[in-house]
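TA notes, week 10

Several of you asked for a full example with nothing omitted. So below is the full record: structure tokens for the whole chain, then the designed sequence directly under it. When grading your own attempts, check the secondary structure regions first.
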């Protein structure tokens, strides 16, 4: 049924319209019975349902319905699997239909700027392309069931410290390339019904009242046509927010801000048409849900199985010195650590799900073999419990293999506050070291939402990064440890050796009022790789029980225009003896020198399943955006003319194949010549080069670089090459001092050069 929403809005009173722009309560939008506008509910999100039937809150404090907790985004991003995220989204969409939820609040695509952000577990990656791909697939999956999503938190909300008041100070190029980019691509490809604006300010303006962000960028440039809702309590000035493009305030304000809107219309401060448009946008999405209701299915057991599968595809095998997979018989195995029995599988706060069941590794292993168990450490306080430690060391000694289930306790990371360091609890580090001393066959399984330092990494033979992998995490861990499944996740973030290696280290979390993103576009591997810095485990890295060989990298053309799409293909072969999946990454390295850029950036990836000995050709595409950087001079993406390397890689530090392509730019950055334009800038532009080259001889002469006697006399002090280099750094202004030119002559020269630059001469 096609509704005439405009006609409905026309019939609404001013008060009804203002009322539509804020929630009825914590989770519902308002209804207007006389016009057939139904009440709809929204709910967290993102990796399962946190539907609160009774007492409501936004921090996961009060009980919600029993549901299924799928792996969190820090884990699912490591799957690099668009189809998997789509499938998980579909399932969540089904659950929403069954529970009558019109919008599920997520996915969350904020970039992991620092390992310390308390909410990193809910975010996908340090890389905007990967985050955008995972988010777009999740959105498409949920929305295929006619349930809305709310991509969040828009934007530059990369820490919890003072998240409701601090201003993220970010230059436009960095915003565009890193912090907005994940949203942009996910919104363009996934078309979410709603966007949730963040709490923080961006360059001094609250996201909730930022016209540039919510209207110029989001709607005018990206074509978003759903509605924007506030994060819970993110509204500062309601009327300003509405004008900026914030349609819905959540939760409800008890009518206060509705009245402010009414007053603003009455006193002429707010045009009623702005309100009408906002209500239309909200109603479009409300009716999209209610008119397209589908039969929902919430088969919890079935969804639990999917949660286990997603977890299996997401966990990352970081180290394996011949210890994994574990034997199913013939060896005594000890499972050590509280998380073997009670896994940490989700983070605290608004995404916290009331799981209907939890499968621990100890539960799951029962189907495979017998293990001994020792708790090892306490999760409530970071203090070694000598009795638990002794018992665990003894269990490890008596076994042939020890598997330690370790990680961050709830208190160490959560929504609402950041971590202050990157360490695991001391008592757990001590436990791992002490066990490794007595048991050479030690494996560590990690449960954490963000990287941890691993001082014991060299002492153990295996490390499985399980992240926070949902309520079936234990099942996936056991399947991977015993080789029932083959690990196929790769890191969606870099694990540095220590916190101070991280590029945001000196500027995180800021002074409380502002946080300056001084590292610019050099976030994550963009920094570590450009600095050639060693890291514990690089972005895109992960092991398998088999091995893969890459060959035959082909490109559809070695010369393209920036408007062309380049097709890239290569062969991948499973060279080991078990079936497995490989994530092939495609990075682009800009060799043009036109801008300061990271040495490489991820621009596509594919995950491919291969039987032993099997070889497949995989194909990927690159377009203008894959080569471009954001040029603020032209307010657009720009790929300079020149060479670019296409890198087919198994991780950001494991480049297997390379190929160079030449890109010709069809756009141009206009050159504005002035008194302080330098000779080198003029030499770089082919049009001005001709003019200035004709002058370099006499310029050098003036500088004492070419005439023979002078050169002889000065050769000891300054060679002709040195003069030329110095000349290159001279601005036109200096021609007055060193060339005897008058200001008028220089100005004439500028006119001539400008004409050349504009192609007029
Ligand atoms: C969080 C959002 C969440 C909302 C509702 C806020 O505190 O930042 O991500 O969707 O609460 O619970």
């Amino acid at each position: 049924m096609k509704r005439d929403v405009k006609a409905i809005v026309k019939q609404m009173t001013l008060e009804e319209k203002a009322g539509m722009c804020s929630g009825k309560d914590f989770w519902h939008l308002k209804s207007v019975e006389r016009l057939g506008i139904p009440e709809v509910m929204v709910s967290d999100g993102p990796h399962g349902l946190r539907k609160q039937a009774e007492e409501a809150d936004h921090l996961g404090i009060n009980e919600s319905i029993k549901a299924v907790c799928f792996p969190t985004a820090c884990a699912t991003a490591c799957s690099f699997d668009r189809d998997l995220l789509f499938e998980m989204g579909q399932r969540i969409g089904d659950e929403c239909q069954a529970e009558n939820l019109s919008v599920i609040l997520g996915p969350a695509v904020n970039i992991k700027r620092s390992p310390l952000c308390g909410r990193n577990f809910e975010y996908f990656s340090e890389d905007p392309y990967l985050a955008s791909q995972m988010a777009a697939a999740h959105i498409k999956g949920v929305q295929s069931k006619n349930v809305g999503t709310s991509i969040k938190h828009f934007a530059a909300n990369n820490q919890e410290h003072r998240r409701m008041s601090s201003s993220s100070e970010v230059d436009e190029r960095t915003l565009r390339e890193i912090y907005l980019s994940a949203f942009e691509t996910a919104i363009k490809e996934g078309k979410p019904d709603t966007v949730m604006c963040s709490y923080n300010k961006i360059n001094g303006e609250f996201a909730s009242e930022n016209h540039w962000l919510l209207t110029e960028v989001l709607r005018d440039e990206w074509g978003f046509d759903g509605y924007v809702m506030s994060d819970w309590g993110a509204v500062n000035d309601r009327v300003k927010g509405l004008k900026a493009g914030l349609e819905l305030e959540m939760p409800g304000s008890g009518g206060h801000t509705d009245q402010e809107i009414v007053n603003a219309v009455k006193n002429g401060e707010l045009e009623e048409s702005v309100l009408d448009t906002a209500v239309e946008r909200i109603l479009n999405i409300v009716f999209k849900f209610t008119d397209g209701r589908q039969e929902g299915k919430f088969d919890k057991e079935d969804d639990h199985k999917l949660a286990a599968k997603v977890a299996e595809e997401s966990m990352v095998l970081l180290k394996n010195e011949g210890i994994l997979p574990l034997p199913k018989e013939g060896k005594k195995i000890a499972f050590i650590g509280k998380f073997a029995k009670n896994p940490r599988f989700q983070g605290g706060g608004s995404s916290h799900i009331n799981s209907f069941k939890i499968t621990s590794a100890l539960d799951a292993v029962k189907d495979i073999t017998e293990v001994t168990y020792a708790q090892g450490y306490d999760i409530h306080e970071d203090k070694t419990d000598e009795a638990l430690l002794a018992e665990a060391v003894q269990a490890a000694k008596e076994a042939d293999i020890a598997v330690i289930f370790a990680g961050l306790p709830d208190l160490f990371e959560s929504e609402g506050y950041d971590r202050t360091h990157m360490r695991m609890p001391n008592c757990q580090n001590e436990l791992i070291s002490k066990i490794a001393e007595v048991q050479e066959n030690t494996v560590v399984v990690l449960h954490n939402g963000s990287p941890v330092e691993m001082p014991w990494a060299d002492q153990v033979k295996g490390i499985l990064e399980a992240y926070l992998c949902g309520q079936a995490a234990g099942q996936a861990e056991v399947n991977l440890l015993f080789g029932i499944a083959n690990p196929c996740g790769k890191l969606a973030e870099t694990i540095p050796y220590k916190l101070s290696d991280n590029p945001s280290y000196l500027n995180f979390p800021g002074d409380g009022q502002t946080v300056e993103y001084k590292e610019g576009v050099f976030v994550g591997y963009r920094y570590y790789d450009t600095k050639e810095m060693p890291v514990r485990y690089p972005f895109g890295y992960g092991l398998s029980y088999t091995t893969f060989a890459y060959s035959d990298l082909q490109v559809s053309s070695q010369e393209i225009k920036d408007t062309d799409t380049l097709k890239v293909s290569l062969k991948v072969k499973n060279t080991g003896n078990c079936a497995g999946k490989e994530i092939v990454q495609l990075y682009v390295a800009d060799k043009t020198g036109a801008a300061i850029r990271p040495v490489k950036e991820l621009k596509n990836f594919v995950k491919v399943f291969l039987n032993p000995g099997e070889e497949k050709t995989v194909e990927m595409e690159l377009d203008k955006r894959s080569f471009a950087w954001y040029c603020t001079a032209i307010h657009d993406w720009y790929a300079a003319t020149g060479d670019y390397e296409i890198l087919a890689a198994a991780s950001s530090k494991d480049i297997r194949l390379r190929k160079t392509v030449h890109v010709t730019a069809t756009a141009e950055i206009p050159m504005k010549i002035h008194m302080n334009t330098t000779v080198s800038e003029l030499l770089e532009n082919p049009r001005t080069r001709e003019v200035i080259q004709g002058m370099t001889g006499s310029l050098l002469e003036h500088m004492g670089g070419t005439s023979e006697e002078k050169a002889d006399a000065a050769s000891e002090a300054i060679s002709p090459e040195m003069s030329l280099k110095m000349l290159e750094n001279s601005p036109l202004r200096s021609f007055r001092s060193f060339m005897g030119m008058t200001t008028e002559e220089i100005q004439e020269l500028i006119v001539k050069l400008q004409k050349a630059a504009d192609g007029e001469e």
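The two ends are 62 Å apart (CA to CA). Use that as a sanity check on your answer.
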